[in-house]
Design goal:
The chain contains ten helices and seven strands. With 282 residues, the chain is α+β, with helices and mostly antiparallel strands.
Length: 282
């Protein structure tokens, strides 16, 4: 009886460790290396089963070389994991967001965008979704602050050191400011687009984020999503898109949401949500 209980505990601990490692990899490009390693392991098993000696030797040596490279590549993630363990934050569950909390965030962000639009203050707000943006905010100014209208306005205020970069947010906090994003440089992009709009398009080409851009020249709000731009949004459209963003997954228990994030790393299953603004986010 004790052996059975011990085996269950042993499996549970190892499963939890693997789960936490995968959670820490969400939002970094290191996950691509992990996918490559899994592919090599799969090919190695197939080669061994088919007795393909040369292929087995080649893959085996490749995996041996990777065993030395992986600790270097995953160094930031390993350090983060150890830091969380030391702070007692090696948690499994995430808190849920109520409807009132979601609506409060919509009001704060919509209010900030409206103010920036009215005063023609350029801004770039990136909303992280399933694909993490850790590679873009880990070298920026980390804020981890509450989402407030005043903070967003002050970040983009003229002469603020962070006003030229983007801010990255998720559903719970303003993660970082002064973030620099990849620029879309496709030749078919109109000259109408400035640097902010190209950055907004660039980040949506490599992730599922949605981005609001406030133009300081025209005093209008645009939305970038999936590499496309919708210009001159109305206030009710902005609020509708924000409600769609915040109303999505916060009602799902934390462990289910995290497991779905991890599952999304290995197969494509993006949940597409329409919004009341006429299908701007697709």
């Amino acid at each position: 009886m004790w052996n059975d209980v011990r085996s269950v505990i042993d499996i549970a601990i190892v499963s939890f460790i693997i789960y936490r490692i995968l959670v820490l990899l969400v939002g970094t490009r290191a996950i691509q290396l992990m996918k490559g390693v899994l592919i090599l392991v799969g090919l190695s098993l197939i080669a061994s089963f088919l007795r393909m000696r040369l292929l087995s030797w080649f893959i085996g040596n490749s995996l041996l070389a990777l065993s030395f490279a992986i600790p270097i590549v995953f160094q930031p993630e390993l350090r983060k994991m150890l830091e969380e363990l030391g702070k007692g934050q090696f948690y499994l569950l995430k808190r849920q967001m109520s409807d009132d909390e979601a609506e409060a965030r919509v009001r704060q962000i919509a209010g900030a965008l409206g103010y920036l639009k009215a005063h023609k203050i350029g801004a770039l707000l990136v909303f992280q979704k399933e694909v993490g943006l850790g590679d873009y905010y880990k070298t920026a100014i980390r804020l981890n602050a509450a989402i407030t209208q005043e903070l967003l306005i002050s970040i983009f205020w003229i002469n603020n050191p962070l006003h030229d970069g983007a801010v990255i947010l998720d559903k719970y906090s303003l993660i970082a400011g002064g973030c620099y994003l990849p620029l879309a440089d496709a030749p078919e992009i109109s000259r109408w687009f400035g640097t902010r709009h190209r950055a907004a398009l660039g980040i949506t080409e490599v992730s599922d984020a949605i981005v609001f851009v406030v133009s300081e020249e025209r005093g209008e709000i645009s939305l970038a999503s999936r590499g496309h731009l919708s210009k001159n949004l109305k206030d009710f459209q902005v609020e509708g898109i924000l409600r769609n963003y915040f109303a999505g997954e916060q009602v799902i228990s934390g462990w289910k949401a995290r497991l779905r994030e991890i599952g999304g790393l290995f197969w494509t299953s993006r949940k597409e949500a329409a919004n009341e603004a006429g299908g701007l986010v697709k």
